[in-house]
Amino acid sequence: MESSSGSNHRNLAEESERSIAAVHDQPEPRTTGGGDDDDPLERSSEVLAKGLSSMLSSVIKDFDFRARETLGSQDQLSSAIDRLTRELDQLLEDAPLPFIMQHAAKISSVRKRVSSLNLLLKSIQGRIDNIDRIMSIGTTHEKTTPEGSE
């Protein structure tokens, strides 16, 4: 299935090719004066015009070719996006929402409980560290002071 913008791009590219071909198919302008070698400035202008026309023609053909390639890749991208959208819609239809929500709620409550236990364990660890520090200070204090000197 072809999009309307895609056909517009193709029509524009074909139209520009036809206009370029029409310019090249036109007969060369002739001077109304006597011979062809009358005015060297006019001859050099014609040569310059032909050169510019030839150069621009090749550039436009290159751009048209790239535009056609871009249009083709955009068509491929569009079809891939459509396919992925259909697959995602199918997956969403197949997955029962209440089932997923129930498990998500369970996971969330487990996460909250684990977080709460983690805070409790950190608090307990802090208390144990304080007790250990107090005991180590008391032990070193007992070793440094003789019992009979007080």
Automatic annotation (TrEMBL):
Q: What ranges does the record list as Polar residues composition bias?
A: 1-10
Is the keyword Repeat assigned to this protein? no
Q: Which GO terms describe its molecular function?
A: SNARE binding
Any single biological process term in GO: intracellular protein transport
Annotated region Disordered: the residues are 1-45
Query: What GO CC annotations are associated with the protein?
Result: BLOC-1 complex; BORC complex
The alphabetized UniProt keywords are:
Coiled coil
Q: Which Pfam families match?
A: Snapin_Pallidin (PF14712)
Listed transmembrane segments? none
Question: InterPro entries, per this entry?
Answer: Snapin (IPR017246), Snapin/Pallidin/Snn1 (IPR028119)
Report the PANTHER family cross-referenced here. Answer: SNARE-ASSOCIATED PROTEIN SNAPIN
Family of the protein in this entry: Belongs to the SNAPIN family.
Q: What is this protein called?
A: Biogenesis of lysosome-related organelles complex 1 subunit 7
